From TrEMBL:
Residues 22-173 form the Adaptive response protein AidB N-terminal domain. This is Alkylation response protein AidB-like acyl-CoA dehydrogenase. Residues 294-449 form the Acyl-CoA dehydrogenase/oxidase C-terminal domain. It holds the Pfam family Acyl-CoA_dh_1. It comes from the Bacteria. Residues 184-284 form the Acyl-CoA oxidase/dehydrogenase middle domain.
Length: 559
């Protein structure tokens, strides 16, 4: 072979034997260990084959579909050939293939099918979020409709009449795409945005429990949903959220025909482009009131709260995918005579990102377990969830954006190219700090949770026990916790307390994630020992010198 031919063959970005993960479930040592630890033997036996299948789909099939759906976003078809208003939303075939994978993953069936629900009642959120996590590692837009669907199921189950439950829930736990219904939450309006109490859409009573809705909803994610929950005003504007009621809206009327809703346009979004977000005007739209008049915001909060947890799991999944993409690349890319991962500044960065990711992972899944406990009558876990869910929503969203950006940089110019997954991950992740309440709203919610629940008390008790378990090495963190609690008791009155609280909650989040690393440690988790060592030295100083072996341990990924 001549020199020119040989150079042509050897001139590669990555070597010929490079083979990334073929199954995200089997490669993820951290997640697999956690699920094995907290799943009951019965759930593990049932769900493991589903996780293996979903992990393979995410690693081998979904990227191409996700990139196609992103490049060919939904299109609004306002009228048909005869000039009739139809407001149909058309999707690329890749969207439906991705939705089919979601249905077949069992993320809803394991939670809502009556027999499976009864079998796994105490761990339903753990069960549902596991396949959702793997799925979200490969697709960032459809997780929003999936989030809305589970939230809608929660409202149906808790607040709807039995006839509605029997009619709608089977369409959510079905294993066939043709029968599958997705959900939506029509909440935001131009008048207020996050200030839901300023909403203007009005509901006029008709007969029985039915009303007619009139007005515009400004940001309707998953606009093509078959099950929609909307807030509308049955009281005065002066009553704020107390004047809002909750309504079930279905696009098809009970007797057939289209329920009148005008889709003004689809949002041209920076990311999550595979799914449809719209501006919708309701013109005498038929809706069924759920719960009592004036209780709408209180009931909708159940869906919002669950959505925030979905936001955190999606953030965790996006961050994980970015990290392992960069890690797999760095383990094979040759630069300056050795692999990229072997350069000190490179492995130092992977140590940092691995430690940040572990904190994100463990606090997110602790929140999931808290919600499972709360749903099963554990009062302590309910108090914890009240504080932890807004905390984890804010923290994971910010960390995901950082981890993805830094992982992209580790790959250099190729990480910026739209043929790969990194740019889409970055665009999709930028919605996470905004969706389901921006970071400042989470600070306000944590303030309310601290005042109105025992969440802080429960969290502090858990943290103190973990730090004492670690012994002398954790004494600085016990002192930091004591100082933090003292400052929280001295919060100033008025608006100034928001500014002070923001910084206090950020410190509380860091200490809580550190305590979780202690709680989770075992002989089988070398990544946790490495993470504790890194974060301990980072927070307590002096900083320990990392090694390439620390990077491998902290990423905890086989491929």
């Amino acid at each position: 072979m001549d020199t020119i031919s040989r150079n042509h063959i050897e001139n590669r970005v990555l070597p010929a034997d490079f083979s990334p993960s073929q199954n995200f479930y089997e490669s993820d040592r951290l997640a697999a260990h956690y699920w094995k630890k907290y799943f009951s033997p019965q759930l593990s036996e049932y769900l493991t084959p589903k996780l293996q299948w979903t992990g393979a789909q995410a690693a081998q099939v979904m990227d191409a579909l996700s990139l196609a759906a992103d490049k060919h976003p939904p299109v609004l078809k306002r009228r048909n050939f005869y000039g009739e208003d139809i407001f149909e939303i058309e999707f690329h075939p890749a969207y439906w293939q991705l939705m089919d994978i979601a249905v077949r993953s069992d993320m809803f069936r394991v939670k809502w099918h009556p027999k499976l629900r009864a079998a796994f009642q105490k761990e339903r959120h753990l069960a549902g979020f596991a396949p959702y996590f793997l799925y979200s590692m490969a697709e960032g837009g459809i997780p929003c409709p999936l989030c809305m669907t589970d939230g809608a199921a929660r409202l149906i189950d808790r607040f709807c009449e039995e006839e509605d439950k029997q009619r709608l829930l089977p369409h959510i736990y079905t294993d066939k795409l043709a029968d599958f219904y997705t959900g939506a939450m029509f909440l935001t309006e131009k008048s207020g945005g996050s200030d839901v109490g300023a909403n203007l859409v009005k509901a006029a009573p008709e007969k029985n429990n039915y009303y007619r809705l009139n007005g515009e909803k400004w940001f309707c994610s998953n606009a093509n949903a078959q099950v929609i929950f909307a807030l509308a005003r049955t009281g005065t504007l002066a009553e704020g959220t107390r004047g809002l009621s909750l309504f079930l809206v279905e696009p098809t009327l009970p007797g057939g025909g289209r329920n009148p809703m005008e889709v003004v346009r689809l949002k041209d979004k920076l990311g999550v482009r595979s799914m449809a977000s719209a501006e919708i005007i309701m013109h005498n739209t038929l809706a069924k009131r759920i719960g009592k008049e004036g209780e709408g915001f209180k009931l909708m909060a159940e869906m919002v709260n669950l959505s925030r947890l979905y936001n955190a799991v999606a953030a965790t999944a996006f961050a994980r995918r970015a990290l392992v993409e960069a890690y797999q690349f760095a383990c094979h890319r040759s630069t300056f005579g050795k692999r990229l991962i072997e350069h000190p500044l490179a492995y130092d960065k992977f140590v940092e990102l691995g430690a940040r990711y572990q904190a994100v992972f463990y606090i997110t899944w602790r929140a999931i377990r808290a919600l499972d406990g709360a749903d099963n009558g554990n009062e302590s876990e309910a108090h914890l969830a009240r504080l932890l869910i807004p905390m984890v929503k804010r923290y994971t969203a910010l960390e995901a954006v950082y981890i993805i950006r830094e992982s992209m940089e580790m790959m250099g110019g190729i990480g910026y190219i739209e043929d790969g997954v990194m740019p889409k991950l970055m665009r999709d992740a930028l919605v996470l700090p905004i969706w389901e309440g921006a970071g400042n709203i989470m600070i306000l919610d944590m303030l309310r949770a601290t005042a109105k629940s025992k969440g802080l008390e429960v969290m502090v008790k858990e943290m103190s026990a973990a730090f004492r378990q670690e012994g002398e090495a954790a004494l600085p963190f016990l002192h930091q916790l004591d100082e933090l609690l003292k400052e929280m008791k001295e919060l100033p009155e008025g608006d100034e307390n928001q500014l002070v609280a923001k910084h206090l909650f950020e410190r509380l989040t860091q200490l809580y994630t550190l305590s979780l690393l202690i709680e989770e440690q075992s002989e089988a988790t070398p990544w946790l020992a490495a993470c504790w060592n890194y974060r301990h030295h980072t927070l307590a100083k002096p900083v320990a010198m990392p090694s390439v072996h620390d990077a491998h341990r902290l990423v905890a990924w086989d491929f």
